[in-house]
């Protein structure tokens, strides 16, 4: 199961906290900017409206007085709003009266009279504070003389002073007797706005801090179940399907946790089922005696059971060539167009394999192939041995029967002279005895193959070896062969008659195939759990290619030898059957021209 690599990134709680903080900052910042802007504009407009109302009121009072002396007396009795300066202009724009001060600390009832001075002429090149008349241009004067009351947000002069709020209205109409000009500094309003902005800033900082703490706690509270589910999902990806604990909410997150737990339980059951199915299938495949090989679409081996590994001898040094041959054959079968008849019988060395291949199909196409290889060498060899056995038995029976029949018919027809009939009768008798021995040996092989129970007894090996020496010394002397039988020791628990038959067959062969003047030896080796008996000769030896078949029935190394000299090829087969019936084994070692040795291993008990 593949798990995606985690990259370094912010956690969900940090992202949620950061988003909420940015949202609060944006909302409070936008709200503060909007409020201060609206607040400043509102208060400036309120101040202009107040100046306008005050100017209209003063103008009305001045217009009700018929002369200028009365008007000046009236102005001295007026109380202007703090921070407001009044300038009375004549219709030509000349300052007549200047009352009040822009500064809130200045005198409010001080009136200065400027008879017939020009507009702005009072500066006379000397430095002084700015007045409302400094911002009152001829265009504004023309508008007021036309009967309009105007409000002005005056910009700084020469870029070096502050702005001023102005209101101008005419005194009287038709004709206009003068202009009332009121001015006020926006500094108090700006200070109020600055104070308000500081309050907004402090409130925003406190709100952001509180919101940050609350949002962080909220984010951790929200993301904690997500973290638990993430760790639970990671465990499930690794095969640990324990349920997720600690998520108790009843909202969508709680439902997601329940869904993950249900999914984990379902995956656990499904994985257990898949594991059981896999073990069952693997057990079936591994228990099959036939070789099973799974190939990918490109021909590489995906799976091979133990029988397949044994088939190409995976533990052997020379495995590569044999394995390559088998894989090459399977790859050639995999690319055939007709997959429904993918059957073949091939021969590799002395082994015959029967191969059946089938494709592993999926929705997308063929994913690979499964091949079953059966070693039919043994069955073919068994069938061949059966036919050869029947042919050999038939041949071995037919020859002596034909001889017996021929000699008897010759004697009956008096073709053979009477003085020679005794000699031919001896020949017939000899063939009859040979036929009887053949039948007897076949019966013994059949008796041993049926697993007849032996009758083991304690054999004194010293007496047994002496008996062998006495039995075969006479024949050895006749053949001119030296027979050396070592002294025996210990006891062997076995069927003495059958063990004696083993050595009779082995020594008979050894003496028959050893030239005159050579030696035949019989000796024994005793080990902890078994006893080894060896019959060794110095004869012509057995060819290497004949060694695997030396214990087969009716097998003769030299087929050119007569049956009288070479026997019928059943002696060594009987030897192997007797030894194996005792739970032992027999093997042969031979070197052409130097002799042969038969090793018999028998368990002591």
UniProtKB/TrEMBL annotation:
It holds the Pfam family PAS_8. One of its GO terms (cellular component) is membrane. GO terms for molecular function: ATP binding; phosphorelay response regulator activity; phosphorelay sensor kinase activity; protein kinase activator activity. The keyword Transferase applies. Its EC number is 2.7.13.3. Residues 220-272 form the HAMP domain. Gene3D superfamilies: 1.10.287.130, 6.10.340.10, Histidine kinase-like ATPase, C-terminal domain (3.30.565.10), PAS domain (3.30.450.20). It catalyses: ATP + protein L-histidine = ADP + protein N-phospho-L-histidine. It is a multi-pass membrane protein. GO terms for biological process: osmosensory signaling via phosphorelay pathway. The chain crosses the membrane at residues 199-219. Residues 277-311 form the PAS domain. It is found in: Membrane. This is histidine kinase.
């Amino acid at each position: 199961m593949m798990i995606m690599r985690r990259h370094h990134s912010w956690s969900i709680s940090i992202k949620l906290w950061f988003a909420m903080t940015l949202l609060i900052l944006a909302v409070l910042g936008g709200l503060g900017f909007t409020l201060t802007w609206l607040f400043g504009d509102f208060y400036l407009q309120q101040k202009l409206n107040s100046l306008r109302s005050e100017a209209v009121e003063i103008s009305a009072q001045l217009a009700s007085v018929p002369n200028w002396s009365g008007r000046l007396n009236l102005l001295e009795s007026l109380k202007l709003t703090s921070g407001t300066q009044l300038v009375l202009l004549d219709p030509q724009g000349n300052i007549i009266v200047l009352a009040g001060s822009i500064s809130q600390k200045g005198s409010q009832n001080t009136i200065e009279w400027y008879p017939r001075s020009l507009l702005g002429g009072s500066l006379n090149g000397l430095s002084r504070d700015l007045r409302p008349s400094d911002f009152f241009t001829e265009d504004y004067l023309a508008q007021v003389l036309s009967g309009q009351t105007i409000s002005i947000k005056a910009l700084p002069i020469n870029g070096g002073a502050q702005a001023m709020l102005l209101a101008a209205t005419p005194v009287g109409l038709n004709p206009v007797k003068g202009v009332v000009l009121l001015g006020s500094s926006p500094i108090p309003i700006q200070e109020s706005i600055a104070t308000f902005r500081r309050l907004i800033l402090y409130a925003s900082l406190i709100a952001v801090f509180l919101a940050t703490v609350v949002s962080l706690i909220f984010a951790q509270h929200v993301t904690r179940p997500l973290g638990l589910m993430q760790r639970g999902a990671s465990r499930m990806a690794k095969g640990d399907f324990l349920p997720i604990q600690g998520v108790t909410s009843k909202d969508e997150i709680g439902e997601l946790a329940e869904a993950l737990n249900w999914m984990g339980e379902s995956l656990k059951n499904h994985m257990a089922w898949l594991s059981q199915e896999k073990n069952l299938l693997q057990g079936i495949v591994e228990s099959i005696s036939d070789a099973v090989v799974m190939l990918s679409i490109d021909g590489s081996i995906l799976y091979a059971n133990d029988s397949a590994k044994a088939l190409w001898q995976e533990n052997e040094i020379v495995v590569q060539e044999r394995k390559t041959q088998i894989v090459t054959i399977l790859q050639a079968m995999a690319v055939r167009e007709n997959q429904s008849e993918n059957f073949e019988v091939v021969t590799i060395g002395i082994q015959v394999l029967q191969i059946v291949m089938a494709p592993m199909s999926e929705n997308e196409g063929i994913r690979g192939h499964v091949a079953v290889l059966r070693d039919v060498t043994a069955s073919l060899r068994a069938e061949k041995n059966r036919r050869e056995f029947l042919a050999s038995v038939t041949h071995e029976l037919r020859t002596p029967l034909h001889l017996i029949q021929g000699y008897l018919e010759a004697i009956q027809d008096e073709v053979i002279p009477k003085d020679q009939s005794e000699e031919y009768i001896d020949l017939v008798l000899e063939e009859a005895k040979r036929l009887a021995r053949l039948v007897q040996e076949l019966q013994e092989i059949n008796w041993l193959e049926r697993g007849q129970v032996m009758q083991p007894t304690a054999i004194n090996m010293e007496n047994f070896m002496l008996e062998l020496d006495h039995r075969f010394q006479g024949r050895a002397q006749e053949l001119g062969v030296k027979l050396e039988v070592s002294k025996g020791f210990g006891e062997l628990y076995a069927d003495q008659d059958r063990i004696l038959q083993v050595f009779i067959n082995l020594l008979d062969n050894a003496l028959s195939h050893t030239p005159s003047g050579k030696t035949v030896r019989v000796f024994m080796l005793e080990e902890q759990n078994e006893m080894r008996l060896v019959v060794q000769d110095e004869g012509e030896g057995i060819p290497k290619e004949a060694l695997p078949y030396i214990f087969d029935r009716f097998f003769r190394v030299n087929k050119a030898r007569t049956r009288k000299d070479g026997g019928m090829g059943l002696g060594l087969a009987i030897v192997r059957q007797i030894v194996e019936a005792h739970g032992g084994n027999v093997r042969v070692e031979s070197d052409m021209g130097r002799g042969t040795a038969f090793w018999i291993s028998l368990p002591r008990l």
